Amino acid sequence: MSKIRRLAVVMSAVAALMTGATAVAADGAALFKAKTCWSCHGKDAKTPLMPFYPSLAGQNADYAFNQMKDIKSGARSNGQTAAMKGVMGLVNEEEMRIIADWLATLQ
Fold it and tell me: Which pLDDT belongs to residue 16?
């Protein structure tokens, strides 16, 4: 494979990765809004409505995803999970993953 061809392949792969990351960011932000997460955790995921609600921006994606799953299933039932339980009924696991991945990108 020529150097030019290899460079084109690498550039195509990078462009695909960047497009995918952009799509996840847009989808995550849209889902955060559509699923009403922002109403308690703040539109920027940094300024929660109440001081005892967590700021979610920058949270580890796997941790956030697992917390959402545990709240939805009832495996986690402490703290403010009673309020979250109803909201999590609106979110499927794929959407949880997209939201969690988006939250992890925030500073």
Answer: 44
